[in-house]
Amino acid sequence: MNYDTRYPSIADLKTRAKKRIPNFAFDYIDGGIDQEDGKLRNRRDWHDILLTPRYLKDVSHADLTTSIFGREYSMPFGVPPVGLGNMMWPGAEKALATAAQRNNIPYVLSTFSTTDLDEIAAAAPDVCWFQLYVPRDIDVMKDIICRVKSAGFHALVITLDIPVGAKRNRELKNGLKLPFSLTPNIVWQSMIHPVWALHTLKSGQPDFVNVLRYKKNSNQNLAEFVTDFNMCGVTQERVELIRQLWDGPLILKGVQYEADMKAAIETGIDGVVISNHGGRQLDAAPSTVQSLQQLGSYASENMTIMVDSGIRTGLDVVRAKSYGAQMAFSGRSFFWGMGAMGHAGAEQVIGIYHDEIDRSLKQLGCAGFDTMDKTWLA
Description:
The chain is 46% helix and 10% strand. Strand 7 (250-255), helix 13 and strand 8 (271-274) form a beta-alpha-beta unit. The protein has a single domain (10-376), classed as TIM Barrel, CATH 3.20.20.70. It has helices at 10-20, 23-30, 37-47, 85-88, 92-103, 117-123, 138-151, 169-174, 184-191, 194-203, 222-229, 236-245, 258-267, 288-293, 297-302, 314-322, 331-341, 344-364, and strands at 66-68, 71-73, 77-78, 107-110, 128-132, 155-159, 250-255, 271-274, 304-307, 327-329. The strands form 2 sheets. It has an 8-stranded parallel beta sheet. A two-stranded antiparallel sheet has the order 1-2. The protein is an alpha/beta fold. The protein is built from 18 helices and 10 strands.
């Protein structure tokens, strides 16, 4: 096992992270929307998928590699985009990008990351993707795409599932807002987590460094700027324009409705990430398992299917492949790892998932990830 066995699961990292970082940082990554039923439903539905093992086979080796968009990755699991990543642990985003490059898995940088996109592209030149929150201003959008292309990012991921800002109760209770206000609660939470606080003081307050140049009013606070920055619902016409501007793999993230997937294929989209934003936007949204289970053959035959939301184990990644998902992502896993272990958490999470995917395939009598399909479903 190429990881620290004191924390052998993502659940262990979550428990450790909760002790090491302030509540406002932990709740930011852990929390969902409203009553958080959607977040719980995501997890429950992955857990409910049963697979039937096949024995009388040599399972001394299982092939974990997967090829998507003309590139072969070492395992079917990647680092998804998470805004404000360096709030969970200073330098988290670059540490994750460096680990993704070293292990040959995708790393997706958020528009609202807190590390310069050129720095990430240099740290992960072979595996970097960029997630685009689509700006209202077309000229701003064109400029960002040009910067991303010049930096060398391989794929562009358009996020669809934040047409409006979310009302997340945990964040409201914690007083988490932008720019950061030193409320008594924020100060107290920082003081009782001194290791996190010292690292944060050394690194400086995280900021949305890749979009600040587009602020037109210097007096506008960051929360208002973010609201004004994003399109209030990404349209089909805007996706078509992005397709014209971007000549590499183009992916839609947040798709659950099959008609949206058909429209994406007609637009020339190369792949989708089936996602409900981790249960952070609409509490009534179907789980990603439900969306995968209802996926028609037309979509899976014409573009690459990926998935996030609720993934917590390597077995979940294998479960996802049984329904046709060729790549899986888990933001909470990685940032719980960073909160629990600092920069070492990146390799810890990758090691856990690699071990669990490998063992799950072998236990099932499956020689390789690419051969896993619906025939293994119980």
